[in-house]
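QUALITY CONTROL LOG
STEP: pairwise intake check
CHECKER ROLE: data steward
CRITERIA: each record must contain a sequence immediately followed by its structure tokens, with no blank fields

ENTRY 1 OF 2
RESULT FIELD BELOW
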Amino acid sequence: MNNLNFFSDYLVASLHLAVPLSFASLGGLYSERSGVLNIALEGMLLTGAFTSAVATFYTGNVWLGVLAAVMAGGVVGLLHAFLCVTLRVDQLVSGLAINLVAGGLTAFFARLVFHGASTQRLPGITPIIIPGLANIPVLGVLLFQQDILVYLLLFLIAVSVYVLFHTSFGLTLRAVGEYPQAAVTSGISVAMVRYCAVVLGGCLASLGGAYLALVQIRFFSEGMSAGRGFIAIAALIFGRWHPIGSALACLLFGATEALQLRIQALGVNIPYQFLVMLPYAIALFALLGLAGKASPPKALGVNYFPENHQ
């Protein structure tokens, strides 16, 4: 029974650690399917965490915090789209700049808002316990005792599969990401599609930050995204730019992080630094294993120049 409880707790921890990664990966998927490289996922996660924490801190309402995170993520996505699509800035440079600015501004304003006590405890989002089903061994606590954001994530993954591969919008999005010149001949506005995709990606990624601040940790601390945005990018590549594949890759990385936390708790004689490095090492090895196999959208990272501007 103790082994069953340990296994059940491990699966739940893996899921919780995978949720912010999955939101960020899903946001990056929409952006990159349209052809806009989104290295800014780290900054979007951090922005979502900060704005959700601040809004919840001042209002005491977690749902206003979630709404604020989505709006802030959309603004960051709009900024990234403006730089990449309108100004045609190098997409890698734009993403890195957003990450640096988000890290600096959130750290500065967190000290002002929380008066130096960035570990201010926040109201959290409580899990929804489904009667009857919640008592099923292992599956009950894994699937039927989760908060609304977990269920929202599962719903969004399913909707994304349908939208991307079974709707005209999904076909348009993929066409713009593969061959924008051909999309233009069909009357499609490349700029509009990319703007919509990157803004939507920012909103989704910021939900991952809200989950970090309001569910997983329940306070805001400087740099709390801790490289999760970059792991989400690795999961996106590992999942071959598919919603389900990327979500499963995030679950793998979440399981790895949960494992290293449990190894530390058991006091196994393994250097602490090695255990902390483990999730990032797994992400690196996963990418190395896909070298030459993963096929990104062909126009990914390439700014589109209309013929009359060439």
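ENTRY 2 OF 2
RESULT FIELD BELOW
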Amino acid sequence: MALLNRIPHRPERVRLLDVSRETRSSRPGLLLAAAGALVAWGVHLLVPAVPMLTAAVVLGIAVAHLPRLRDVVRGPARPGLSLAGRRLMRIGIVLLGLGLGLDQVVKLGWATVLMVTGVVAATFFGTLWLGRRLGLPGDQPLLIATGYSICGASAIGAVSQVSGSDEEDVASSVALVTLCGTLAIAVLPLLQSPLALSDPAFGRWVGASVHDVGQVVATAQTASPGALGEAVLIKLMRVALLAPLVAAVAFSLRARRRGVRTPSGRRPAPVPLFVAGFLAAAALRATGTLPDLALEWAHTTQEALLAAALFGLGSAVHLPTLARTGGRAALLGLGAWVMVAGVSYVGVLLTM
């Protein structure tokens, strides 16, 4: 009887042990991400023209390729750096909502919602068509189209679970989307003045055209806090379209199960939790109950979390892998990049 009483508790103990092991394995990477954020802050203090978040991305890429540090980045620090790139980024985005009011969301209007939906649809189907015309093998056209139209590597991973794509197709697609998204951090700010975009318009353009949430933050913050806020709002609209897009892909492939399941077997939320958290934070800000000191502390915490997350994302970039994506894939990536930038630019001009 005593033995039977202990059996129900065993799975719970196993889960606790797994959480404990994950926490221990993440410590080196989290400490490295925190150190990277601190160094990025120091760089910004020494050279104010270099934004803290941009410095964090560049430092992450540099650390991943330095002879002595790259083994640490790819080895013991990898779990924590990956955790920083995912979890800390989402927490930072939630806190970013405290800097915005729901009145700003309402001001975007239906025209903006239709613009974002149009950009996603045009990019997805245009990239898919171009990839097939170029003769890319396997599911690469589908995966690259998903990554460019929604949210980069996250969208590719979600669709690959439905399509059962080959690991090499997934890896090459993620590498290509990561490369173009990283280049956007440096290229798009240089185009703001020639394209005569105001800071809010630039933020919308970035949010509608850059792939990953972290890359959107790193690119838009080079203009102004207002541009960053607009970019995140537009980007979160695109992220919210991930669930219906993946469901549509599943249906088109005649998947037997309804919707999409995570590796754990649970259905993902229709809207990512950090999106809901961002909107809840914006609603809290709209009440006017938070004191200025609390908002200042939230802003400081947000900057630190985003810097650590972007350092983690930068450390995942592997330049030799990106160089092996192939000529046709690179051509598709360039074409898709021009497509999403061009369509979103026209959409921003029509809705501003």
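INTAKE CHECK: passed for both entries
DESCRIPTIVE NOTE, ENTRY 2: Residues 1-9, 14-19, 255-260 have pLDDT under 50 and may be disordered.
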